[in-house]
UniProtKB/TrEMBL annotation:
The keyword Metal-binding applies. This is Inosine-5'-monophosphate dehydrogenase. Its EC number is 1.1.1.205. It is an enzyme of class 1 (oxidoreductase). Its cofactor is K(+). The active site is at C350 (thioimidate intermediate), R446 (proton acceptor). GO terms for biological process: GMP biosynthetic process; GTP biosynthetic process.
């Protein structure tokens, strides 16, 4: 017992106050526990827009292990994801490989539209046809391929085995396979593969329709590293690799269509008349959600497109955007949008706010639009400005159902493009869809609504590079665990609970000064190395 206390009394004789089950109202309202989102964003005398870095979430009472935190949430009114992560429809971020891996990890990928409508539909089809462990687009060789070409492809692609078909393409008649063992002792680079490959009659193959379990058993019994899958015409339809079977175990969180058990996949379209034909091809390919992709979504063009999509393809959910105010959101919800994409000019490669002087700080945009859309049961996706797991947690705590990421995913193995080295650092290209390079490839339609040919392009983005982040199979679990830790520290057991507490005022925040932001990061060191996992 301290000197100041004796038998429950202070030294001055005042009786000690008994502690209650909850903190007293005076302390709660004093700011000692932080402030409600309404006080920060609505009762905002400074009229300032807030970013993620401007805010910090107040800690809460932890009454559950981190493994019990439920991060599942809705992307649209009809689509729920076990992991609230969405890859952005950018040509340096999401094609079929990114979309497949995102879906296997419990999120979803949105295929970009900087390609022909037919090519985009094929990308969607690759996702929908994907079977865990089956390679549906292996690199094939033709009978005329030489050893020199094989060695170059091995070096470029880091593959050791290639099927050989009569056409040199997937779907051709299988005539053999090349492995390291076949080419190890051949010296003449001009020798054709037909002279040293393992011929078709010596191959162990599986018939189209084989299950993963059956294929695994065949590989185990044959002691082979590769198993070609052929149809009744002996045409190659897939390839199964022992190494991939070991990597691709069951994915219990995988985002799948409840009707056909195919992986979920999204795709982006514009608002021009020919995008209606694009949408038809995407719907025929089995796309689950279409994102109407505009930098400023509150337009007559997007409203007309949303109405068309809901009438022509009622089985496909539609996400409208981008928006940053409730009035913008209102028009798209009224048109029939099943979800909203929130963010304008805040991506790492976006210059819209600088060039056009229009946009909004992202934390303010997410809070206000999510609060309004919630009245109609419409989830929102926070798009842009995500630089860390802390930003993801803040976006979810401000009412977002999911977060959309570009730069966070662009450096992964599954993103389109090749790695290159600069100053000893392994990098991948990353560009904004408003950059001149992306506009020249078709991205201009996202930013221009003039029916006449635009001769002067105004860039609203830049091109750059991001560092290598490795495979999504390791990176997404790291992001997931970071978000779980953040919600646990806030005393929040689920994303759904975070929204309830946001709107009933029990989830508290505080605005950070520039000095507080510096204090909250790494500081005071001569040098340091930052490793994610």
């Amino acid at each position: 017992m301290s000197e100041t206390q004796t038998n429950g009394y202070h030294k001055n004789g005042d009786k000690r106050q008994k502690i209650g089950s909850e903190i007293d109202e005076e302390t709660l309202n004093s700011g000692a526990e932080g402030f409600t989102a309404e006080k920060i964003f609505v009762n905002n005398p400074s009229c300032m827009g807030m970013t993620y870095d401007d805010l910090i979430v107040m800690p809460g009472h932890i009454a559950f292990p981190v493994g019990d935190v439920d991060i599942s949430s809705n992307l649209t009114r009809n689509i729920r994801l076990q992991v609230p992560f969405v890859s952005s429809p950018m040509d340096t971020v999401t094609e079929h490989q990114m979309a497949i891996t995102m879906a296997l990890q419990g999120g979803i990928g949105i295929i970009h539209s900087n390609m022909t409508a037919e090519e985009q539909a094929q990308e969607v089809l690759k996702v929908k046809k994907f079977k865990n462990g089956f390679i549906l687009d292996p690199m094939c060789l033709s009978p005329d391929t030489t050893l020199g070409e094989v060695l170059k492809r091995k070096a470029d692609l880091n593959f050791s085995s290639f099927p050989v078909t009569d056409t040199g393409k997937m779907g051709g008649r299988l005539i053999g396979i090349i492995s390291n063992r076949d080419s190890a002792f051949i010296e003449d680079p001009n020798v054709k593969v037909t002279e040293f490959m393992t011929a078709r009659d010596s191959l162990v193959v599986a018939k189209d329709g084989v299950s993963l379990e059956e294929a695994n058993q065949i590989l185990k019994e044959s002691k082979k590293g590769k198993l070609p899958v052929v149809n009744d015409n002996d045409e190659l339809v897939a390839l199964i690799a022992r190494t991939d079977l070991q990597k691709n175990k069951d994915n219990p969180r995988a985002s799948k269509d409840s009707h056909n058990k195919q992986l979920l996949c999204g795709a982006a379209i514009g608002t021009r008349p020919d995008d209606k034909k694009r949408a038809q091809l995407l719907a025929d390919a089995g796309v689950n959600v279409i994102v109407v992709d505009s930098s400023q979504g509150d337009s007559i063009y997007q409203i007309e497109m949303i109405k068309h999509l809901k009438a022509a393809h009622p089985q496909v959910d539609v996400i409208g955007g981008n928006v940053v105010t409730p009035s913008q959101a209102h028009h798209l919800i009224e048109a029939g949008a099943d979800g909203l994409r929130v963010g304008m000019g805040i991506g790492s490669i976006c210059t819209t706010q600088e060039v056009c002087a229009v946009g909004r700080a992202q934390a303010s945009a997410v809070y206000h639009v999510a609060k309004y859309a919630r009245k109609f049961g419409i989830p929102i996706t926070a798009d842009g400005g995500i630089q860390s797991t802390g930003h993801i947690t803040k976006a979810l705590c401000l009412g977002a159902g999911c977060v959309m990421m570009g730069s966070m995913l662009a450096g992964t193995d599954e993103a389109p493009g090749e790695y290159f080295y600069q100053d000893g650092v392994r990098l991948k290209r990353y560009r904004g869809m408003g950059s001149i390079e992306a506009m020249n490839a078709g991205g201009e339609k996202r930013y221009v609504w003039d029916t006449a040919q635009s001769h002067v392009k105004v860039a609203q983005g830049v091109s750059g590079a991001v560092t290598d982040k490795g495979t999504l199979r390791r990176y997404i679990p790291y992001l997931m665990q970071g978000v779980r830790h953040g919600l646990q520290d806030a005393g929040i057991p689920s994303v759904e609970a975070s929204r309830d507490r946001l709107y009933n005022g029990t989830l508290r925040f505080e605005i950070r000064s520039p000095a507080a932001q510096r204090e909250g990061g790494v500081h005071g060191l001569h040098s340091y190395q930052k490793r994610l996992y």
